[in-house]
Design brief:
Length: 287
């Protein structure tokens, strides 16, 4: 779409080979032409809709199971007993594009000031050994926990014990399912401001520029300096998740869209009508 064809060829050749990369590039034109024939396109965030730039796009968020996410994760009503103690966590793949070293360095900078912070890294990947060594060299190996890949109840239990979740990707996250899940648990999140994750969080969390260690450290200091912020943003995150990210909301929005498309088809209308606001979920959406 940016007409950087040589760059596209080189990038995809790493996984597909030069022949496969050339085939992908050539097929991109008929693929986009066929996409334009669709009656509607579903996007998980406005950010993705702007990037893909296809007509008749509708934003419908993922649905997070409310019972599973919130059954044993009560909202914080009071700040922790020790206001300078904070558990920061990351959930995801341990790969270069997720930029976990920025999180580790930011935690180190906050600890230099004397604040007690523990770091929980949930996930696995090729970068794990390097990240463990980096945490050791930073001087807080006893305060950093690498759990490895977790699923189901184990993942839920580990994530709900995190005070603040950080998503520090250097690339533009399309959305961030882990962000929605943590918001449903009533926990504040800190994300980079360059993609769909920041759009989802809005005023229910904090954001910082990608790879800006000092800015991320400042976000963490806000929680240690203002411990009541944990409860304030946690409640705001939970309420927003219930309004926009529940499975019921997702199903209702799909149902309403399908009804509009069917009615338009039956009436032999040439253009797809906009989604009618039959769902309470859509009426609560900020856009």
């Amino acid at each position: 779409m940016r007409r950087r064809y040589l760059q596209c060829l080189r990038c995809n050749a790493e996984d597909e080979g030069w022949l496969g990369s050339a085939r992908m590039l050539v097929l991109s034109w008929p693929r986009r032409w066929l996409c334009r024939l669709a009656s509607a396109h579903l996007r998980i965030t406005r950010h993705v809709a702007r990037r893909v730039r296809l007509p008749r796009s509708t934003v419908i968020h993922y649905g997070v199971p409310e019972a599973e996410a919130g059954e044993s994760a009560p909202l914080r009503q009071e700040p922790p007993a020790n206001p300078s103690t904070l558990t920061v966590g990351y959930v995801g793949r341990l790969v270069q594009e997720k930029d976990v070293p920025t999180l580790i360095e930011a935690v180190r900078q906050v600890r230099v000031r004397g604040d007690e912070i523990t770091l929980t890294i949930i996930g696995d990947g090729p970068e794990r050994k390097r990240l463990e060594d980096l945490a050791t060299r930073a001087g807080f190996e006893t305060s950093a926990v690498f759990t490895g890949a977790l699923r189901g109840p184990q993942l839920h239990n580990a994530a709900q014990n995190v005070d603040v979740l950080v998503l520090q990707s250097r690339w533009e996250e399309p959305a961030g399912l882990v962000v929605m899940e943590q918001m449903m648990r009533g926990r504040p999140v800190v994300v980079t401001d360059n993609g769909g994750a920041a759009e989802l969080v809005g005023d229910a969390g904090l954001s910082f520029p990608p790879r800006d260690t000092a800015a991320l450290a400042q976000c963490m200091r806000r929680f240690t300096d203002e411990p009541e912020l944990l409860a304030t943003l946690g409640e705001r995150a939970r309420n927003k998740a219930l309004d926009l990210f529940s499975q019921q909301c997702m199903v209702e929005n799909h149902y309403n869209l399908f009804q509009v498309l069917l009615e338009a088809h039956q009436a032999k209308q040439a253009a797809v009508l906009p989604v009618t606001n039959k769902s309470a979920c859509l009426s609560k959406a900020p856009y």
